[in-house]
Automatic annotation (TrEMBL):
Molecular function, one GO term: ATP binding
Entry keyword Nuclease: no
UniProt-listed GO biological process terms: defense response to other organism
Domain Disease resistance protein winged helix positions: 425-495
UniProt domain Disease resistance R13L4/SHOC-2-like LRR: residue ranges: 586-903
Protein name, per record: NB-ARC domain-containing protein
Keywords: ATP-binding, Leucine-rich repeat, Nucleotide-binding, Plant defense, Repeat
Stated family: Belongs to the disease resistance NB-LRR family.
Membrane as UniProt keyword: no
Chain residue ranges for the region called Disordered: 522-548
Domain NB-ARC: 171-335
PANTHER family from the UniProt entry: AAA+ ATPASE DOMAIN-CONTAINING PROTEIN, DISEASE RESISTANCE PROTEIN RP
């Protein structure tokens, strides 16, 4: 795995170098050495593919010494090429400034000095020699060709990673909601093998009847060696409470008392996933209150003794066994069916049924992975793949699941391998923002560039294919159904994390009491919560050269732990070390600086000068107050994320970042560019610009009308004139899909007048619109193809629902937030909103009556009514035939009871009705003394 992945990375960089050489350099031997290196690496990669990249990878083709030497050569060459390309970029910029009037003609064609080219050419020549030395004689090959894959668009799969039979799922559900026992009980799922304990627990956890049965549900993956205080904080932060501030500063006893008091008021379901020590349960035995209301705990573990000891009074643990042949084949067929319906293929599968069942050994993860893998392979290759897996199963001393995992990884395209391994960088069971992950892939250079497609679109296809193959699972979705967060399945994280570290693809440094943040002045180390989730932490994708005494950090990614914030000392030491390396060597290769969630890191004033190779910077949720002015000097910067910080002003130097494509902020003012020419030339590639406060200015002063690539835009204006001129700019942005406009008073931040022009209706691409401000509502002025509409503080007096339902036939999501409507009666007419799926009515304080006529909103699935305190009557909710979830938050109890009765009268028990009220107590504000008294009272008496 190591050599194959690293060779793919290096080939990408050599191809970039090849373009530079052909365009700018005249030294012929340099061109020749680049071509030789590419050819040699392609030859080695082909031999690796022919040998097979399962557990026998490199054992059958290369000796262990060969492997080590090969990796050292590849790492060293990657460092060499990355440095050379960076220097090329720097010298080219200097050459642009000097121009031909200050340079001899020869130097104009050679941005890099000739002697530098000569030295680089010599080193590249030595690299080619080292490749030939590693492997020069013929090696045994597979007796069949590489597997060919079908090319097709992958469907967006909603099914679970693992599907279980009725028996195990029914037993678990019965113990949760059909058991007459009212006392708190622990239900343990136990198996030493990877049979899908977590998947079964998650499937039941998300069932509609289970969600309806518990007021509070909490899911917690339990890392090894987690501290009791951290565990309590994580649990508390997932429980709905009135006020929860300062828990990080409470003692362990105070936290236990607070958790006890909170759970006493709720019927809860808590899942403790992957418990490896009985001590974890001892931490929670006291604070898990038993209110005799049917609360339950699900615990998954590989240790049968833990499963038995946690609750000796309960029924025996549920011991999960491998699937029977019948159930295995049913699951395999279900996963294989996508995109494959021809008779010949199914005949081949049926003829190999016995072999497939033997390979999978009844393990659901193995069945799922193999089913999806075989569904992508050409029919004439199926028998060959199955036979090879069967041979590996008989010869190799490892589990069937390991063989299948290795094969699934080997059959990925090289770029997908890199993207997949990068996900292993994140902690186990960590929910990764899809937005963040795809931007990181792009910044790292894993996404192949295309002249016809945006990098984000290509990255989205990569993710979709990995999801289809069940190698990444979707954790949550947005309201419109798009992917929001994802994660690496636990069994895959266990397999790949250590292997990724072994080959040097990633390097993590765990925070422990006996560890220093910097292992040595020459080596960069970062923190990861994989083992210790008690701090904000970082990990890095570290392409290090074992042959070099000093490691080179190409990426630093910080994970915000769910527990408590700590000092930024470690982050600051890391950044200081990077800057020091820049001063001593003249360059730093860091591409990614993702400090999301780190606590107020200190950024050097000359960050733009010292880290000129940065492509991605995220300071989201860091709480910092300012950003260095030099950040606009970064020539490669593509993404700058400043959301959820305290930054209110950003230097105008940001307009100089010529490659910037995504700038995300919250109400930030930026000085206008020094000239319109500067903004038009430097920001022509920008696709996302959110949170820009233009105040009283004309947006054309920023050159906004010339940002023709914009797809997502968010602005705040302080005057009617500024709003009107903004709309004029918007009409010229033909690619704009998502627009958010706030009109508010400069002094007090109150909503001010917002005018909507008539020409907005013909906008060709605008599909999402968010408006904050007071305006005279005219639906006829809105784009006809709107799919999402959000209104806030609009002060609309006339009922907007009849016009909205008729004039916006494509609307999927409608959100009416605080004071968007100030009337007393709202009526949804029959036939209105034919495609509406999500409706949210928040804090409409004057609304008293809402009527849903027959045939209105026929596709509505999710409805939330929050803080409409005067709403007394709602007629026709029972007519919403497709309604799945109804959430009532801070509503009158009489209204809630009336809704329940109406739904029950028409047999609508399948609707998930969630009723949330403000907590009657502000628990976190109680004195610690009072909390402890409560705890001891309930526990001992």
């Amino acid at each position: 795995m190591g050599a194959d992945v690293q060779i793919s990375i290096l080939l990408e960089k050599l191809n970039k170098l090849k373009e530079v050489v052909q365009e700018r350099f005249i030294y012929p031997r340099l061109r020749n050495h680049v071509h030789d290196a590419i050819n040699e690496l392609q030859r080695i990669r082909k031999e690796l593919e022919e040998a097979g990249d399962t557990s026998t990878l490199l054992r059958s083709v290369y000796s262990s010494d060969d492997t080590s030497t090969l990796l050292r050569s590849v790492y060293s060459a990657e460092l060499l090429i990355e440095t050379f390309l960076l220097n090329t970029s720097i010298h080219c910029r200097r050459d642009d400034l000097k121009n031909l009037t200050k340079n001899p003609p020869l130097m104009a064609f050679l941005p890099i000095p000739p002697w530098t080219q000569l030295r680089f050419s010599s080193k590249l020549k030595n690299f080619v020699k080292s490749l030939k030395a590693v492997h020069s004689e013929p090696r045994p090959r597979r007796d069949h060709s590489a597997i060919n894959h079908k090319t097709h668009e992958f469907e967006d799969d909603d099914d679970e990673l693992v599907g279980f039979g009725d028996v195990a799922e029914k037993n678990l559900v019965d113990r949760l909601i059909n058991d007459d026992e009212k006392s708190l009980r622990v239900i343990s799922l136990v198996s030493e093998k990877a049979v899908g304990k977590t998947a079964l627990a998650r499937k039941v956890y998300n069932r509609l009847d289970v969600r309806q049965s518990f007021e509070c549900r909490v899911w917690l993956h339990v890392p090894k060696n987690i501290k009791c205080k951290d565990l309590l904080i994580v649990l508390l932060k997932q429980i709905p409470m009135g006020v929860l501030k300062g828990v990080e500063f409470m003692s362990e006893g105070e936290l236990s008392a607070l958790l006890f008091q909170t759970l006493m008021e709720l019927r809860f379901l808590i899942v403790l996933d992957d418990v490896s020590s009985f001590d974890v349960w001892l931490m929670l035995a006291c604070p898990f209150a038993d209110a005799a209301n049917g609360s339950r705990v699900i615990l998954t573990t590989r240790d049968s003794k833990i499963a038995t000891d946690v609750d000796p009074w309960s029924r025996p643990p549920l011991e999960l066994e491998p699937f029977t042949d019948e159930l295995s084949w049913e699951l395999f067929s279900n996963k294989f069916r996508v995109g494959r319906h021809d008779t010949d293929t199914h005949h081949q599968l049926n003829s190999n049924k016995v072999k497939i069942l033997k390979i999978c050994s009844g393990l659901p993860p193995a069945i799922v992975l193999l089913g999806r893998l075989l569904s992508t392979i050409q029919p004439n290759e199926l028998a060959c793949v199955i036979d090879r897996l069967l041979i590996d199963l008989d010869k190799l001393d490892q589990s069937p699941l390991s063989n299948i995992i290795a094969l699934c990884f080997r059959e990925l395209r090289s770029e997908l391998k890199l993207c997949f391994l990068y996900v292993a960088l994140f902690p186990k069971e960590y929910e990764i923002s899809v937005r963040r992950l795809m931007q990181l892939w792009i910044a790292e250079g894993f996404v192949k560039m295309s002249s016809t497609q945006q990098p984000e679109d290509i990255a989205g296809k990569y993710l979709k294919e990995l999801v289809h193959r069940n190698m990444i699972e979707i954790a949550t979705r947005k309201e419109d159904g798009r992917h929001k967060t994802c994660r690496l399945p636990s069994f895959l994280h266990d397999f790949f994390f250590q292997k990724s570290e072994d080959i040097g693809f990633i390097h993590s440094h765990h925070c422990r009491a006996n560890c220093t943040p910097i292992d040595s002045p020459a080596q960069l180390s970062t923190d990861s919560p994989a083992d210790q989730p008690n701090t904000d932490s970082s990990a890095q994708n570290n392409i290090d050269s074992p042959a070099q005494p000093n490691n080179v950090c190409l990426s630093d990614v910080c994970f915000k732990a769910q527990t408590r914030g700590t000092s930024n000392e470690k982050i600051n030491e890391l950044l200081k070390t990077i800057i020091d390396r820049r001063r001593s060597r003249g360059f730093v290769l860091t591409k990614v600086l993702d400090l999301e969630g780190a606590h107020r890191p200190l950024l050097h004033a000359k960050l733009g000068k010292f880290l000129s190779n940065l492509r991605y910077i995220s300071l989201r949720w860091t709480g910092i107050d300012s950003c260095p002015k030099s950040i606009g000097d970064l020539p490669c910067l593509e993404t700058l994320d400043l959301k959820y910080t305290n930054i209110t002003n950003l230097s105008s130097s940001i307009w100089k970042a010529k490659n910037l494509r995504h700038l995300l902020m919250n109400e930030v003012s930026i000085l206008k560019p020094s000239s319109s020419k500067q903004s038009s030339t430097s920001m022509s590639n920008i696709q996302t610009l959110t949170g820009l406060r233009i105040g009283f200015e004309d947006p054309k002063e920023y050159g906004l009308n010339r940002f023709t690539s914009l797809q997502k835009l968010g602005l705040t204006c302080h005057s009617r004139s500024s709003v009107e001129k903004t709309w004029d700019c918007i009409s010229q942005l033909n690619k704009l899909q998502n627009f958010k406009l706030r009109s508010r008073d400069h002094q007090f931040g109150q909503p001010s007048e917002l005018v909507i022009p008539d020409n907005l209706t013909t906008h060709p691409s605008l599909s999402k619109l968010y408006l904050f401000g007071v305006f005279n509502f005219k639906v006829g002025n809105l784009p006809k193809n709107l799919k999402t509409l959000t209104l806030s503080m609009s002060k609309i007096k006339e009922d907007p629902m009849p016009e909205l339902g008729e004039c916006l036939p494509q609307l999927n999501i409608l959100r009416l937030f605080a004071d968007s409507f100030v009337g007393e009666k709202m009526n949804c007419l029959g036939g209105g909103f034919p495609k509406l799926r999500v409706l949210k009515l928040w804090m409409l304080e004057t609304l008293k009556e809402w009527i849903v006529e027959e045939g209105a909103m026929p596709e509505l699935e999710e409805l939330e009514i929050r803080g409409c305190e005067k709403l007394e009557k709602s007629l026709g909710l029972e007519r919403l035939s497709h309604l799945k979830e109804l959430t009532l938050t801070n509503m009158k109890r009489e209204f809630v009871e009336d809704v329940k009765q109406n739904l029950a009268s028409v047999g609508r028990s399948h609707i998930l009705l969630t009723n949330k009220f403000k907590s009657s107590t502000t628990l976190a504000c109680k004195s610690s003394h009072h909390l402890l008294l409560l705890f001891f009272f309930f526990f001992f008496f």
